[in-house]
Amino acid sequence: MSHLTNKLKDNIKKYLKRKTRVNTKIKSHKPKYRLIINKSNLYISAQLVDQSGDIVASINDKKSA
C-alpha cells in the first residue's frame, strides 16, 4: 500500500514541477493578451485579458448536448 502512496506523491510532485515550469514560461514571455476558458457541465465561457489584468472581451454560451 505504501508503494501506491509513494507513486501518488511522485505524480503530484511531477505535476507541481510541470505547473511551475509552464507558469514561469508564460509569465516570462509577457503576451499582450491571454485567453481564459472556463467550462462546466452546462456552460462554456471565454475571456480575453490584457497585460494589466483588465478584461477586454468575454463570451458565455450554453453547451449543446
TrEMBL record:
- Keywords associated with the record: Ribonucleoprotein, Ribosomal protein
Regions annotated as coiled coil: none
Protein's UniProt keywords contain Cell inner membrane = no
GO terms (molecular function) for this protein are: structural constituent of ribosome
- Gene3D superfamilies from the entry? 3.30.420.100
Q: Name one GO biological process term.
A: translation
Which domain of life, per UniProt? Answer: Bacteria
* Pfam families noted in UniProt: Ribosomal_L18p (PF00861)
One cellular component term from this protein's GO annotations in UniProt? ribosome
Q: Which family, according to the similarity comment?
A: Belongs to the universal ribosomal protein uL18 family.
What's this protein's name? 50S ribosomal protein L18
Organism of origin:
candidate division CPR1 bacterium ADurb.Bin160
